[in-house]
C-alpha cells in the first residue's frame, strides 16, 4: 500500500469509518511505516487542536424571535439589536403612555375652555373635602356587602 | 409534542403546524447556529443568530418537501450549509479571518489569568483562521464531522456527495489543517507532536 492511500485511510480509521479489510491493511502499513505512524499521531493531535475552537451560545429567546419572524417574515426581530434589547417591550408601554398623555391634554384643554359654573365648582369642592372619595368608598362597600352571604340567615 | 421524533414534527410543520416547528427550532437552534458560526468563522454572534434564523425560515417554507426517510437534522444542516455559502458569496468575504472578528465565543477563563486567557484566545483564533482557509466543502465536512459528530453517510447526505468523496474531503481538510497549524511557531503548544516533515 502506498503512503498516500494509507494516509487517506488513516483519517477514516480515526473516525471509525473504515471497514474491516481496509482497517487491517492500514494497521499492517502502520506497523511497517514510521512516517505514516507519525502522520496518524499528528491527526490524533489535530483533534485536540480543533477542540480549542469554541463558539457562542444563542441568546435567550431565540425560538421566540424565530417564530415571530415566521409569523411576520417582513420583520427582522433579531439579536442584532444587542444593547437595545431593553427597548423591546417598549411599544405597548409607549402606546399606553401616549394615550394617557393625550387624555390628560384633552381634560386639561376642556378644563381651560370650560367656563367656571356652579356644577364645576360643586365637583371641585366635593373633591377637595374628600366627599367624592367617600361616595366612591360607600359605593364600593355597598357592592361588596351585596356579594357577601346574608348574615341574618 | 416534545417527545415526538424530529421527522414527525417536520412533517407536521410541512402541513402548517407552527407549534411542531417551534419544538424543532427549540431542539436544534443551538446546533444550527454553532454550525453557521464554525463554518463562516469570521462572524459575530448576532450575524450567526440572524443566519440561523434564516435557516429556520427556509426550513419552514420547504418543510412540505421534506422526505421522511431523511433525517431532520441533516436536512437542516444542508439548508444551513447552503445559507452559509450564499452569505459568503453575497458578502464576498475575504477567506482570511480577521482578528477583529473575535466574538463572545472565545471568552477565556478569567480565573486562569490574563496571560492564559490571551493565549487561549490566540490559539482559538489560529484554529478559526485555519478552518476558514479551507475550501467550502472541506470546511463543511470537517465541521460536520468534528464538531457535530455526523457519520460519513450523514455528511454525504448534507453535502450531496458520495461517502467516498467525504472520505477524501476529510483527509484533505486534515492534511491542510495539520500543515497550517504546524506552520505557526506556537503550534507545538497547541498540537504536541505536529511536524511538517510527513507530507
List keywords for this structure.
heterodimer, A: 153 residues, mainly alpha, 7 helices, B: 199 residues, Rna Polymerase Sigma Factor, Chain: A, Arc Repressor Mutant, subunit A, 2 domains, 0% strand, disordered C terminus
The most extensive contact between chains is: A-B, 41 and 58 residues
> pLDDT under 50 segments of chain B (min length 5)?
93-110, 187-199
Could you say what the CATH architecture of the largest domain in chain B is?
Answer: Orthogonal Bundle
Strand content of chain B: under 5%
Give the helix/strand class of chain A.
mainly alpha
What characteristic shape of chain A results from the CA principal axes? rod-shaped
Helix content of chain A: 55-70%
- What is the residue-mean pLDDT of chain A, rounded to a whole number? 71
Assembly state here? heterodimer
Number of helices of chain B: 9
Notes on the protein architecture:
- The complex is a heterodimer of chains A (153) and B (199).
- Chain A has helices spanning 3-14, 20-32, 34-50, 62-71, 90-113, 118-128, 131-147.
- Chain A has a domain at 3-50.
- The radius of gyration of chain A is 39 Å and the shape is rod-shaped.
- Chain A has 153 residues and is an all-alpha fold.
- Residues 79-93 of chain A have low confidence and may be disordered.
- The longest helix of chain A has 24 residues, at 90-113.
- The termini of chain A are far apart.
- In chain A, helix 1 (3-14) crosses helix 2, helix 1 (3-14) packs parallel to helix 3 and helix 2 crosses helix 3 (34-50).
- Chain A is 68% helix and 0% strand.
- Chain B is mainly α and 199 residues long.
- Chain B folds into 2 domains: 1-94, RNA polymerase sigma factor, region 2, helix turn helix motif (Rna Polymerase Sigma Factor, Chain: A, Orthogonal Bundle), CATH 1.10.1740.10; 112-189, Arc Repressor Mutant, subunit A (Orthogonal Bundle), CATH 1.10.10.10.
- Chain B is built from 9 helices and no strands.
- Chain B has helices spanning 6-14, 18-40, 45-62, 72-91, 114-132, 136-147, 152-159, 163-183, 187-190.
- In chain B, helix 2 crosses helix 4, helix 3 (45-62) crosses helix 4 and helix 5 (114-132) packs across helix 8 (163-183).
- Residues 93-110 and 187-199 of chain B have low confidence and may be disordered.
